[in-house]
Amino acid sequence: MNQALGRPSRRIRAGALVASVAVAGLVLSACGGSSSSSESSAASEAPAASSAAASADAGGSTEPIRIGISLPLTGDFSQPGGEAKKGYDAWATNVNAAGGLLGRQVELVILDDASSQEQVVTDYNNLISNEKVDLLLGTFSSLLNFPASTVAENNQMVLVAPAGGSPKIFEANPTYYFFAQQAIGPDQANPFVDMVAGLPDDQKPKTAAYVTQDDPFAAPVIESMQAQLEAMGVETVYSEVYPPETTNLQPFASKIAAAKPDLIAQGAVFEDGVSLVKSLVQVGYNPNIMFQTSAPSNGAQFTDGIGTGNEEGIFYAVSWSEKSPTPGNAEFIATYQAQNGEGLVPAEDAADAYAAAEVLAAAVEATGGLDNPTLKDWLHANAVSTILGELSWDEIGRPQGDFLLAQWQNGTVEIVAPPEAATTENLVMPKPAWQ
Fold this sequence. Notes:
By secondary structure, the chain is α/β, with parallel strands linked by helices. It folds into two domains: 30-177 and 325-391, Response regulator (Rossmann fold, 3-Layer(aba) Sandwich), CATH 3.40.50.2300; 187-318 and 403-421, Response regulator (Rossmann fold, 3-Layer(aba) Sandwich). The chain is built from 13 helices and 14 strands. A five-stranded parallel beta sheet has the order 2-1-3-4-5, sandwiched between helices. Strands 7-6-8-9 form a four-stranded parallel beta sheet, with helices on both faces. A three-stranded antiparallel beta sheet has the order 10-13-14, covered by helices on one side. Helix 7 links the parallel strand 6 (207-213) and strand 7. Helix 8 (250-259) packs across helix 9. The chain is globular.
């Protein structure tokens, strides 16, 4: 599902997942072992049983269950990577307070992949071969989970990922990889498209402009949206893809303004989403409807970046809401705030990591052990209740649900679709003028 204003960058480099081809040989050659020098942010001092021994005697051991994770704690993805760590830490705190898994405490072994595809391969091989972890949880982004999923597959270990829904990950037909959000990237657009389809004729957009970062998750969202809206009769008046390193979106804003679209949809990560809004303010163009991926979900970072008040009316798809009554959500928020700051609203990336850990824990408890092939088979056959809602997967780990559609309203985020998850029946339409 997450990446500048005094904040660490969320940019994605390397031209989508094409760069993963360059590390394919490394993935295959490294599966036999590794001697990574990566930083461990939760290193173990307790002696570790081998994964095989733990799997055979999960209920009888008193040793901690060790879960290996590689995260981008430095580099381009350090902001969402740090939030994912907060989510994993909150889950470990809560599960250990409740007695652990299978009556054993949980220990997270977290390495820093430095936002590097090569390092993420090294990290997961190190976790499996040298650290002898019992279980794995995923890293952040499709770019990093793509090579990580190959390592997991080659070692027959389940990898539940909190972020990593690019359709390219599933082209290899993985069986041990599970994306722990509601849907893959292209389907993120569906709730918004359905909302547009249901608008009264006098509010439906007649023209649209599309602009997206060349990002393996964001770009498929916009491509899918454009195709669906064109099929509905919405005319495309502008469409452009820009490189991940693009920082100045004003030339794109000027071209969009010249085309005068009713609707603007942007495949944004974070900085680029802020830049486009600021550029639209500068050129003085305000659409009736605006949708962005990812960027608006960053709460105060987003509103501070674009100027408070300019968020009003912006739509985005999201996996999680702090207002959701889903089981465990209140406990997650309470622990997150206890660990990170009273009253602090968790980032979506933290919630996604927490949910990924819930998925893995559900499989462990349901099967009564740590045998990864057994865990894999159980997850393919069963749904899991998480703070995101119920999640289920097809035969290659693609989730089978729908994202939530959110809109900024009166300085807060409201869920406007689907109806069963909505926190309001109101839509801010047309989008108010920029401040």
